[in-house]
Amino acid sequence: AQKVIALGTNPDRVRILPNRVDTDIFHPIQDEAAFQALAERLPPGRHILHIGRKSEQKNLDTLIRALPMLPADYSCIFVGQGDRSPYLSLAESLGVSERCFWIDAIKNSELPLWYSWCDCMCTPSRWEGFGIVFIEAAACGAAIVTSDIAPMNEYLTHDVSACLVKEYENPRALADAIRKVCEDTEY
Fold first, then answer.
1. Which long-range CB contacts under 8 A does 20-27 form with residues at least 24 apart?
2. Can you give the pTM of this predicted structure?
């Protein structure tokens, strides 16, 4: 609201509408058989879930650069549309292509299972309009790693509801945050 008012919009015309998540769909899942079915599709270890189209905005490249700094049993599942070829090349050049898994889409009704199952949901966006995936992940009880920028830092609190990374384009900072949420039993 402040931004559009600063641009000259009459404050009487501004309405703030909350973003909503359907908690009948997005809630923690505790179905061990369903978790096992997901686990059978991927190697054992820690699983990082990145949700977002393949674009500069979603910062897949920094997450891929962070993978070599994580233990070998960490892998990343990238869910979203777009040209993955530059990211495949980057993963190959860093020797982590076997730790990167690519899914074009997951039905909304199935996302809660993925959020509930993953060790962390990490989409370190360079910019966002809102980022509903973070609220969906939080509603499912996922450990969240994302950028310490608006709007995420307006509704997620560092070390309470998410691990917010100030240096979100620094692979080391991102790797450290991922390890923190995946290995700290208090997180």
1. 21/132, 21/135, 21/136, 21/139, 23/139, 25/108, 25/109, 25/112, 26/111, 26/112, 26/115, 26/135, 26/136, 26/139, 26/140, 27/112, 27/139, 27/140
2. 0.89
- Residues 127-143 have pLDDT tens digits of 998 889 999 999 999 99
Instruction: Return the structure tokens found at 102.
Output: 């690519």
Structure-token match 């199935």, residue found: 110
99: closest CA among 133, 125, 69?
Answer: 69
Structure tokens at 114: 């993925």
pLDDT in tens, 10-54: 988 888 766 678 889 999 999 999 999 999 999 999 999 999 999
Q: Which residue has the tokens 């979603």?
A: 58
Question: Any alpha helices (H) in 7-164, and if so which ranges?
Answer: 32-39, 60-66, 85-94, 111-117, 132-139, 152-155
What is the SS3 string spanning 49-63?
Answer: EEECCCCHHHCHHHH
Q: Are 113 and 38 in contact (CB under 8 A)?
A: yes
